[in-house]
Amino acid sequence: MKIYGLNKTTLLDYPGRVAATIFLGGCNFRCPFCQNSSLVLNPSSQPELSVTEVLSFLKKRQGILEGVCVTGGEPTLSPDLPEFLAEIRALGYPVKLDTNGTRPDLLKELAGEGLIQMAAVDIKACPDNYPSLCGLLHPDLDAIKETVDFLINGTLDYEFRTTVVKELHSEQDFVAIGKWLSGAKAYYLQAYRDSEEVLQPGFSSFSYKELEHFRQILMQTIPLVELRGID
Ligand code: SF4
User: What is the CATH number of the domain that holds 193?
Assistant: First the structure.
C-alpha cells in the first residue's frame, strides 16, 4: 500500500464528520480538469508515508476524529486496499471511499464486508460526454452504470458529485444526468476551481446563476441537489 498524503483534519471530506483524509496514488482516468495531477501522472515523485505511520496517527486520534476518507487518485486501484481498510476499521473508524466508479465489483465487496460506510462517486458528465471529461476515448461506462445502480438500489450510504467545468459541460449534460441518476438521494455540483495542480490548465467555472439553473434541472428527478464550492 502506497500512501502519498494525509490531511490530518478536515470538515469537508466526510459529510457531518471531523475526518482525516488519506491520499493514494495512480488513476485509470485522465480528467483534464483533475486537481491532483501529480498523484495521477507520477505518484512515485510524491513523498510517501508508511502504513504504520498513518495507522499510528489514526490510533492517537481515536475519540477525536469521527471518520476516515480514502481518496486518490483512484483508490480502488491500490491492490492492498481491502487489507488497509480493515486496519482502519479495526481502529473503530467509519470509512468513506472516493471513487470514479470504474470498479463496481470491488466496491460491492468492500461494502459487503463492512470495510466502507460511505462512497462518494464522481459522475464526470452525461454518458455521451464522458470521453471529454475523463480523458479516455472509450471509458467503461457499463462499470460506472453498475456502480450507480448498486448505490441507488442498495443500502450503502453514498453521494454522487460532479465538478462542473464551463468549457466541458453544457445544459444537456445535466438534463441527461438527471434522467440517469433519477431516484438518487443526493447529488452535488462542485464549481471548478483553478489551481497549479490541474492536469490541463485553462478551464473556468460557470457563474452561480448558471450552476443554479443546472441545479433546478436536476431537482426535477433528484430530491437533494446542492452546490458546493461557490463563493
Ligand atoms: S479527477 Fe479523479 S478520476 Fe479524474 S484523473 Fe483525477 S483522480 Fe482520476
Answer: 3.20.20.70
